[in-house]
Amino acid sequence: MEKEKAHKKRQKITIDTKIMIIEEKESTNKSDYELAAKYKVDRSSKKRCRLQKGFYHLVEEAFYKWVLLAKSASIILPYYVLKEKAMDFYSKLKTENIEMREGFEASDGWIKKFMKRF
């Protein structure tokens, strides 16, 4: 009979820890094993720690800067204004021939998720 492998208990890794691991990996010559030991995570978890840019990351970057400026000026931003501005940024980037995925819609869901991320 084959021996059954003992299953390891799943360990959650916070986004902050993932970011620290990625930044340290990029800035140092530490191996995956060293980083895994330092942050007490399984070495294979590192493969799952890649941050992905969204399909519309350029829109999000421009929109984020605009939201910060508006907040610093204490401007209240209703959803319809946020939607219009996000669509403006998308349109401007498309007219500048920047390759982006088609079909961007600044929906309520997109706005909510954006605000949660940033």
TrEMBL record:
Residues 47-118 form the HTH CENPB-type domain. It comes from the Eukaryota. InterPro entries: Homeodomain-like_sf (IPR009057), HTH_CenpB_DNA-bd_dom (IPR006600). Keywords: DNA-binding. The keyword NADP does not apply. GO terms for molecular function: DNA binding. PROSITE patterns: HTH_CENPB (PS51253). Pfam families: HTH_Tnp_Tc5. The keyword Transcription does not apply. This is HTH CENPB-type domain-containing protein. It comes from Brachionus calyciflorus.
